[in-house]
Automatic annotation (TrEMBL):
Superkingdom in the source lineage: Eukaryota
EC number(s) given by UniProt: 1.8.1.8
Record family assignment: Belongs to the nucleoredoxin family.
Stated name of the protein: protein-disulfide reductase
Pfam families in the record: Thioredoxin_8
Catalytic activity: [protein]-dithiol + NADP(+) = [protein]-disulfide + NADPH + H(+); [protein]-dithiol + NAD(+) = [protein]-disulfide + NADH + H(+)
Keywords, alphabetical: NAD, Oxidoreductase, Repeat
Amino acid sequence: MAEMDVEAVSAVQQHDVGSILSGPDRDFLVRNDGSQVKIDSLKGKKIGLYFSASWCGPCRNFTPKLVKVYNEVSCKGDFEIIFISGDSDAESFDGYFLKMPWLGIPFADSKARDNLNSLFKVEGIPHLVILDEEGKVVSVDGRRIIDEYGVLAYPLTAEWIKELDEEEEEAKKEQSLKSLLVSPSRDFVVANDGRKIPIAEIEGRLVGLYFSLSSNDDDSAQFTPKLVDFYGKIMAKGENFEVIELPLDNEDDLDEEYREALKTRPWYTLPIGDRSCQDLADFFEVCTLPTLVIIGQDGKTQNYNVAEAIEEHGILAYPFTPEKFAELEAIEKAKLDALTLESVLISGDLDFVIGKGGIKVPVSDLVGKTILLSFSAHWCPPCQTFLPKLIEAYTKIKAKNEAFEVIFISSDRDQSSFDEYYAQMPWLALPFGDLRDASISRKFKVRGIPMLVAIGPTGKTITTEARELITVHGADAFPFTQEHIEEIKAELEEMAKGRPATNEEPKMEDSVPEVWVCEDGVCRKA
């Protein structure tokens, strides 16, 4: 079949499905059992193009939702999903594809996958593009549509999705605690002693809707005790506040231990397995856990997630107003400005990092140097992609300035993975499983990796965005100060003035590796 011309096709909103899905010598798609399905068989069907990858946490969270919708509507015979993988090896592709009941572009056809990414300008995953029966783009926001409406999004027409969006906007305008929590069969929440508390009795309070999973979810398990402590202190002060927990587990999936744990909560819950739990998770577009949505005393949404604020600031975050968050932001900036290398890296007797062979290097030996804290992991493909660029920059900088070092802070899951990954690096590291890992990550609000934090010779934080600087400028980014970066930009602009005019776009792909950062429920290209 003819090869796809990306530039020509991307200029239109209606696509020849056969052309964009095929390859020069391929007119079929594959199932996860290896069987082939002719692309021609998709004629007259709605298509969902699903851009995803096994290494992407948000993708792994979204895929089961998409599977559920697919299983409910695929029997109608007019809808199909095509998996376009972002994995870098066949083994990862195969393992992830096994969880999908739909079709896929063969992993071996990387050119077709790259073309589709370019055609639909995919900048983050998971990403779902919906095409109608004629190949016309219905929406490039399919992930949101499935998240919010689930199977109700079918038949996936532009008109129907618009109607759903308008209904949701209207519902938000008329939103109240009752409209959120009352269902046709229930007008109450449940206290820890089993009492049914009418929702009408809670109206007029500031309410936190706490979305959680069972104890198998480490983040929720770690946050819950902090929320219990916060709740106790707030209630002791007599504040007009309440928490309602919404367990997102299916009733059959909950073990007895977690059921008993729910009974010890000091707040209210919705009944286990209540459909409203998932409906509200969709309504508030919950994509990370833990999530604590704040509903104001007027019943309107005040904040979509204050879990992190409670983790970091406790009762100081209350009552979660914009003014309060501005105050907390100022506090955070002051804390960041006050950090020194010693306060970041030393905790009790842990006053060292390690070099090759496990040799201990005292933190005191690093004082006065420019330090990059490299948050990374062996399991993270974007980290592995970025690593050669960082090694190249490190080597060049060290050749000119010995007062420079990188410290690897690992998110690996076992010692062997840490050892294998660290063996590739020419710099220092915190030992695997070091107790300082978590506190350092919290100090710098590490939400995605790879991430590089630059600390200057005085011990002050220069930037938390050194990865971007290395990606664009390489070793020239040193010493990572704003003044230096402005100088580089000025020099580049001056050089550009002397170049002849050209209509060609500058090509960055040869010099800048593809780097992804996963945060806030999506993995995006840096």
